[in-house]
Write a structure and sequence with these properties.
Length: 308
């Protein structure tokens, strides 16, 4: 059973209430999206959720989002609880630094909403600082949008995490979360080059010039590598390389996905070599001591399933 603040309980006991729904998204880069289903902006200067918490709900919640929320499904049998929220896609007219009007297609494509934290709550729009009653705290789910600029997403509850497989498996491929992370320990700066765009076919395929190539950096070595833009409309966005040598020309790049904004000649980037998580690649990089694929030392199910 949920516990409500005294102020909230007193408000909903009145014959007429003045409640509005607000939502707060914290993107993976730290930027915020603040919205409400009310017809006017709602400023909150004091967080008052009735319990001691480090949660900060202050800010101006924009009515431009036009968000609507579905009914909330919760149960006591450990099944996943969730709710759907829909709104209008952001056109990029935010007036505050690092605070955006709503979800944008560019940021969705860039992965800034992958696992982003969401807090949905009720507020008295006449006196927003009286209370904020949190009705759902969770994470951003899959986003769908249409040609009219409307989107719909699922707010996944905390029980969603319990359905995910947690732990390591004894496989033959390295299971580090990200190439070059704390478990991989490889210094990626030693296998990273800079470059700039020469010509563009589309936002997924373009020809570049790569600077300071070493003798080991030949066709194929950047496949599965990460490209990070350092200038241009996509500055700060990252993508993964599918083919680093389209037409057998090193630097003629094909990405797995399109970048959200137009790629143009002169745009600059950093490009890091890729890793297929196989022991052979780890040995090439001189990092086999940190290889995280114990299955190669303990033949088990992989050996059984392997054909004669």
């Amino acid at each position: 059973m949920r516990n409500h603040s005294t102020a909230y309980a007193a408000h909903i006991a009145q014959p007429v209430t003045t409640l509005a729904v607000c939502w707060r998204i914290k993107k993976t880069n730290g930027d915020l999206v603040l919205g409400t289903d009310h017809d006017r902006n709602i400023p909150i200067t004091v967080t008052n959720i009735g319990v001691d918490s480090s949660l900060d709900l202050t800010g101006v919640y924009s009515a431009k989002t036009g968000i609507t929320a579905s009914t909330i499904k919760s149960s006591g049998d450990m099944s996943v609880d969730n709710m759907d929220v829909s709104g209008a896609l952001d056109k990029g007219n935010a007036s505050e630094p690092n605070v955006f009007v709503d979800v944008s297609v560019a940021d969705v494509k860039a992965g800034l909403y992958d696992g982003a934290q969401i807090t949905v709550f009720f507020v008295n729009w006449q006196n927003p600082d009286d209370f904020q009653d949190v009705i759902r705290y969770g994470f951003f789910g899959q986003v769908d949008w249409d040609s009219e600029g409307r989107y719909k997403t699922e707010v996944r509850g905390l029980l969603q995490i319990l359905q995910q497989v947690v732990g390591r498996t004894c496989g033959e491929t390295c299971d580090v979360e990200d190439f070059g992370d704390a478990r991989c320990k490889l210094d990626l700066s030693t296998i990273t080059v800079t470059g700039s765009v020469i010509s563009v076919t589309n936002n997924r395929e373009f020809v570049t010039t790569l600077d300071s190539l070493s003798s080991n950096q030949v066709s194929g070595v950047f496949n599965l590598g990460k490209l990070t833009w350092t200038a241009g409309d996509n500055n700060g966005y990252r993508g993964q390389v599918k083919d680093d040598s389209v037409g057998d020309v090193l630097g003629s790049l094909l990405m797995y996905e399109e970048f959200p904004n137009d790629v143009q000649p002169g745009d600059t980037f950093e490009l890091t070599e890729g890793c297929n998580r196989r022991p052979e690649r780890c040995k090439e990089l001189g990092n086999f001591v940190n290889f995280r694929g114990p299955g190669i030392f303990n033949p088990g199910m992989d050996e059984i399933m392997r054909a004669p």
